[in-house]
Design brief:
The protein is mainly α. It has two domains: 93 residues; 32 residues. It is 78% helix and 0% strand. It has four helices and no strands. Helix 1 crosses helix 3. It starts with a helix and ends with a helix.
Length: 130
């Protein structure tokens, strides 16, 4: 079941992310708007678009989340492989996604300090008279 959903989510996300899907959505809205006067802008006429968009939005949330989770996992695995392959890299960085928010914040501050220090050192080297 999981594999069937994965394939369905992947194919569907590719399809609904296309320019054709966008044009279809615009066409549906234009047809709906044009039919307004024929239905005297009735509650039923409004309910059709509201119900349709609600159902599509509800279903797309799950498909998009599935696709993003899968892509995110793949990116993490690729980065983990690169970290492990770089001599001198801190391999403890491989599982950062399991850290608490506070730990991630501390690590981000550490990298910001390193970046400022590197920029300061680089600037000094450029302005040195030697």
């Amino acid at each position: 079941m999981r594999e069937i959903f994965r394939k369905f989510a992947q194919v569907t996300s590719q399809a609904v992310g296309s320019s054709w899907a966008f044009l279809l959505a615009v066409l549906i809205i234009v047809v709906w708007a044009i039919t307004g006067p024929m239905f005297h802008y009735s509650d039923t006429w409004q309910l059709i678009i509201n119900t349709g968009t609600t159902i599509v939005t509800f279903m797309m949330v799950f498909l998009i989340q599935n696709t993003q989770n899968r892509d995110n996992k793949a990116i993490h695995l690729k980065l983990d492989e690169l970290i492990k392959g770089v001599k001198g890299a801190r391999t403890g960085m491989v599982n950062l996604e399991s850290l608490s928010d506070a730990d991630l914040e501390r690590l981000q501050e550490e990298f910001a300090r390193l970046h400022r220090h590197e920029n300061h050192s680089h600037h000094e080297a450029e302005t040195s008279p030697l």
